[in-house]
Structures are given as structure tokens and as C-alpha cells.
Specification:
This protein is α/β, with parallel strands linked by helices and about 140 residues long. It has six helices and four strands, in the order βαβαβαβααα. Helix 1 crosses helix 4 and helix 2 packs across helix 3.
């Protein structure tokens, strides 16, 4: 869905305080943004995950887009979001990492969300590297030169 005059908004929804940590890192790297919502599920027993999801969705207009980052595919947070957010203007990305979130948040809003998400996922996969193995491989190549 191409952005049609609305705002691209973001939700980081995780078990526990991971969402807050990710938001803290985002604020340092990209600057604070008021279009990013957080749900830290199961931290406060007086808060309902369903109510938190509804509160976010109530702030997303018909012309807005919402990109949701959830922590675990098949986890309760993702499953609850899917029950309430299967709408054309809502995109759910599960199993995120920080480079993925940064790339999507900084993407040009004129680029369709689907395209931004697919490219960011491919790029984010490249950020997951077993560094010890990489260094060992580089050291072996240098020894053979």
C-alpha cells in the first residue's frame, strides 16, 4: 500500500522490556520520534495486551500505515496483534533486529511499505554474522597470502 497522505507509524511490541530498549537505541541513533508506539507485554499485570493494542490502533487513521515489529513469530504478542490488526494498512514484521527497524523507520515514505519491508529484511539478514568465524576465515586468508 502506497502512503496516501497519511502518516507511517510504527509499533514495537515485545514480551517484557525489549521494546523499550529498542526504542532507547532508536532515539540515540535516529532521534526521538512521536510516531513510534511501544507495547511491553506482561510487564505490568494491571495492563491488558489487548487494551494496549487497541489503544495503538485507535491512533491509526484510515489513511495512515502502521508497521508493527514483534519479537517472536508464533508468540503470544504477535498472535494477539494478528487478531486485531489484519487490515490493509497494517504490516506485521516478526523476529526483528535493530538494523531492520532503523532501515524501515528511516525509509522514504513515498516507497510502498511492502517494498521497504522486504528490502530491509534482506539487508537485516546480512547484519547477523558469527563474527568469530568471520575473523578466523579472514585470518586464514591473510596467512595464505
Amino acid at each position: 500500500m502506497e502512503n496516501t497522505g497519511g502518516t507511517r507509524k510504527f509499533l514495537i511490541a515485545t514480551h517484557g522490556k525489549l521494546a523499550g530498549g529498542v526504542k532507547s537505541s532508536l532515539d540515540l541513533i535516529t532521534g526521538a520520534a512521536d510516531n513510534t508506539f511501544l507495547i511491553e507485554a506482561y510487564v505490568d499485570e494491571n495492563r491488558s495486551l489487548e487494551a494496549d493494542i487497541k489503544a495503538v490502533l485507535d491512533q491509526v487513521g484510515d489513511n495512515d500505515e502502521l508497521i508493527v515489529f514483534s519479537d517472536i513469530m508464533g508468540g503470544s504478542v504477535t498472535n494477539q496483534i494478528l487478531q486485531h490488526a489484519l487490515q490493509a494498512n497494517v504490516h506485521v514484521v516478526s523476529g526483528f533486529n535493530l538494523p531492520l527497524v532503523i532501515e524501515i523507520i528511516l525509509a522514504d515514505t513515498d516507497t510502498p511499505a511492502e517494498e521497504v519491508i522486504e528490502e530491509a529484511i534482506e539487508n537485516a539478514k546480512q547484519q547477523m554474522v558469527y563474527v568469530n568465524k568471520l575473523l578466523t576465515s579472514q585470518n586464514q586468508e591473510e596467512a595464505h597470502d
